[in-house]
Design goal:
InterPro entries: TPM_dom. It is a single chain. By secondary structure, the chain is of the alpha/beta class. The chain has a single domain, classed as Roll (Diaminopimelate Epimerase, Chain A, domain 1), CATH 3.10.310. Helix content is 44%, strand content 15%. It has helices spanning 8-23, 42-52, 81-84, 91-103, 108-126; strands at 28-34, 63-69, 74-79, 142-143. The chain has a four-stranded mixed beta sheet with strand order 3-2-1-4, sandwiched between helices. Helix 1 packs parallel to helix 5 (108-126) and helix 4 (91-103) runs antiparallel to helix 5 (108-126). The longest helix has 19 residues, at 108-126. The protein is globular. The termini are close together.
């Protein structure tokens, strides 16, 4: 079964959104995509994936995971402790609303790209890029 709902162009656009967002921040953004969510609550699955991808290992605990189970039409956005403590209270919810508005019409790549850009703006504000910053996590999309 094909576990990738994106065209090559869409994948490139998402990866480019991650790279652009990370250029201005020490934060790390990952996207994980799979057809089905193993839990009733996608946040629970996102927590598992976050750990599997080693996202908790960033120096400033500023990783952000965009999780999408496209067949089940479930998704979650999970920020590590460092970023979660700094963003405005409604930030994750309003970002989920943005994604939901695109996902409703199956515009997953568009929604993810805009959500990544939005998360990148927050990361830039609270975790600006430092000259000694290293890309701690891969920018590619992970698939199950």
């Amino acid at each position: 079964m094909q576990n990738n709902p994106f065209t090559q162009d869409e994948q490139q656009r998402i990866v480019e959104a991650i790279r652009q967002a990370e250029k201005a921040t020490s934060g790390e953004i990952r996207v994980h995509v799979e057809p089905h969510c193993a839990h009733a609550d996608p946040i629970q699955r996102a927590i598992e994936v976050f750990a599997q991808l080693g996202m908790h290992q960033t120096k400033e605990q500023n990783g952000v995971l965009f999780y999408l189970a496209y067949t089940d039409r479930k998704f979650a956005i999970l920020g590590d402790k460092g970023i979660d403590a700094k963003v405005p209270d409604n930030f994750w919810e309003s970002t989920k609303e943005l994604l939901r508005s695109y996902f409703k019409s199956s515009q997953y790549a568009e929604g993810l790209s805009l959500g990544i850009e939005r998360a990148g703006q927050q990361l830039k504000q609270y975790f600006p890029y430092a000259s000694d910053d290293v890309n701690e996590l891969a920018d590619d999309i992970s698939f199950d």
